[in-house]
Amino acid sequence: MYVVSVTIFVKPESVKPFIEATLQNARHTRREAGNVRFDVLQAEEEPTRFLLYEAYRSKDDFAKHQQTPHYLRWKETVTDFMAQPRQGVKHQSLFFGDSTES
Predict the structure, then answer these.
(1) pLDDT (tens digit, 9 = 90+) per residue, 67-91?
(2) Among 7, 101, 5, 19, which residue's Cα sits nearest to residue 55?
């Protein structure tokens, strides 16, 4: 598995439209053949902080995701909602869920 975690700080006045755009992107991403998981998380004590947890079968599947119309639309839509540039960290999975495969 190839996992990407993205931390995003959103301007307070943009939280609601950010969530709407991000959930739309997440729903479309889950339909991609190479996507295994897409979680959208909002910090409990800091509601302007979000974490996107994305899992793909391979690095190539993630690259394909970044070329989809729904991702490109999301990226363009949310750019002005961000309080600072998003921070993405890419990971190689050593153990994923309850699977014995990585």
Answers:
(1) 999 999 999 999 999 999 999 999 9
(2) 5
* Domains of the chain with bracketed CATH: 2-92 (3.30.70.100)
- Please state, in angstroms and rounded to a whole number, the distance separating the CA atoms of residues 58 and 72: 20
Share above pLDDT 70 across residues of the chain, in percent, rounded to a whole number:
95
Q: Is the dihedral of CA 74, 75, 79, 80 positive or negative?
A: negative
Give the DSSP per-residue string, 9-75: EB-GGGHHHHHHHHHHHHHHHHTSTTEEEEEEEE-SS-TTEEEEEEEESSHHHHHHHTTSHHHHHHH
